[in-house]
Structures
1.
Amino acid sequence: MGKPTFRVASKGMSIPKSAKCPECGSSTYAVVCPSCHNKLPESTLLGKDMIISVVGSRDTGKSHFVGVIINELIERISVKYGGAMEGFDDTMSRYKAGAYQKLYMDMQKLDLTKSSVQDVNNGAYRPLIFTLKLKRKALFKEQIDSFTLVFFDTAGEDLNDEDTMSTVNKYICKSAGIVFLLDPMQFPAVRNQLDENTVSRASSVDWKQATRSDDIMSRVSKLIRNDKKMKSEAKINIPVAAVFSKFDAIAPLIPEGSTVLETSPHCNEKVFDMSDWHNVDSEIRSLLVEWGAESFISQVDVNYTNYSYFAVSALGMDNNPKEDRRIDRPRPHRIEDPLLWILKENGVIKPSKK
Ligand SMILES: Nc1nc2c(ncn2[C@@H]2O[C@H](COP(=O)(O)OP(=O)(O)O)[C@@H](O)[C@H]2O)c(=O)[nH]1
Ligand SMILES: [Mg+2]
């Protein structure tokens, strides 16, 4: 219903810089997706785009994770690594009017995301697209590398339905990394150690209504295998960050002196700190064992070659939403860790020497 679109013959491997509209005859420089007609960023055409998929069952904190990490990337993370993050097309205005307005201006928690089947404007149909520009020292000069970061925020129930998943959520198969969110309070061993009020303020739905995380994991893995025409025993090589959300709520259960309680060191060091990463990964693995979640550990292991465990809080310590939905301005804890690890795995930022 918008502007006309048309196909142009490619010149060998390259896409022409401009083309004449067959209807009105004027030249255009805009390149759109042949399927959905959304505009495509230049780095997509150069093959430097990175889709970061955020998946997890309902109520695991996906929307809060995406809403907060974008602001952190713009204001803090990109700057620390000597770069900048810009919105593509109308992304910035959509972000500012959506999650940013609610979390940072109204200071309220977000509503549950609507299914793509009911609402085509949700985060799965129209992802938020950013260009991340980073400085790199080349031989004699400084070079700017630019990458497209695409954030898809899926409604949990869309991952329940295999048909919706294989059409709407196809992007997952093309991901440079998957952030797989887990709500630690879905484990009875964790829930039973916390008071009911803490648990209910840290959720939007009753935990009994949420799909089990291992179900989502097996569906996502099946979708990727089908798309890549892989055998059912073959492991998938997309990096998977298995991330515990809402860490603020469970922090009192974490042994004193644990690395995961400290603030994230990566940005200040301007590299990816390998020893910090190692400590956090092994602390979370042992917590999973303590919580009786070995089946989840082995499920990740049989499906993926490259995975790692993290814990984050989007809202931050002592910022569990009040009964009336109010929150303080988000002051996230370790929210950058899974994303920086994915960037490190894709060769965008460097690992520390040890
Ligand atoms: N305490 C705490 N609660 C959180 C945090 N992130 C999300 N929540 C809670 O979890 C609920 C679901 O989060 P949401 O992002 O909507 O989950 P989604 O369904 O996966 O998108 C929210 O309503 C909050 O109550 C967090 O960092 N800390
Ligand atoms: Mg959501």
2.
Amino acid sequence: MNELASESSAQTEQIWAGVDIGGSKILAVCVDENTNVLARAQSPSPAAHGATAILDAAAEAVRVVLARAGGTCRGSNFQGIGVGAAGVIDPEAGTVLAASGSFPGWTGTKITPELAARCDGLPVATDNDVNMLLLGEIFAGGDTPVRHALAVALGTGVGGALLVDGALLHGGGPGAGEIGHIGRFGDAPCTCGQIGHLESYASGRSIARRYTEGSGEQADAAEVAVRAGAGDPVAVRVFAEAGTHVGAAIADACGLLGIELAVLGGGVAGAWPLLEPAMKRSLAERPLLTGRSVEVRPARLGELGIAVGAALHARSKCS
Ligand SMILES: [Zn+2]
């Protein structure tokens, strides 16, 4: 994928927009048929101001990214909009079924029709943000796509997504793949009200909390990573615990579903060198019945991953 490829290609080829609706930013990209990113646009997320503000910002990001790619919502080559949104999403209706407290008023929002109404009635396809991250990682990289994969998003919380038999697994809820809320890895409290979940150890919020508990000092996850890199033993331990439990959760998912590839995304995964040794040890201690090994790697698309995956989702749903 060539980021920010020639703008002229938008004049003739079919193009799609993808929008990442998150708690800190709204990020839109425009891609062509070969998943070249023609343009991007980003603004701070108004998540704290409610659904209308979020939808308005998403629509504006689409208009800006299309203008930067040389198109408009009414352009004949513009095929549709994909959305990767925070929360548990009903992908058929494009509706938010549940959302965290950082998104007041987001639950119940009908993203697909509301965004279409703001964008000249264009087709819109909506799914969960980690699902879109996984789509982007599997189908935008140019590799032969694997058919069974897992994404673990280590952000403020821990999200997950599953690709099974070549298709995203939504489950009956939907809400399949919520790997952050499985396991009993210890007694640390989880945001969901239970204890010992993966999110209790491997989210940015948990890493910060556990560092403070161990050191008596306040630091966010990024600062804990810096301190771990400098040899702070508490910081090193907190990241090693996170890596150990991520490895165990991946091993469980692989044993259950025959996963071939696990991709780690989210801001905490940027501390890959701090997580990898313990994670690999944990995986090695839990060999699969088949004896095969599982590939685990950091996400490649960086901050564009969710938006690019959403654009690919639009390409499959809105053509
Ligand atoms: Zn939980």
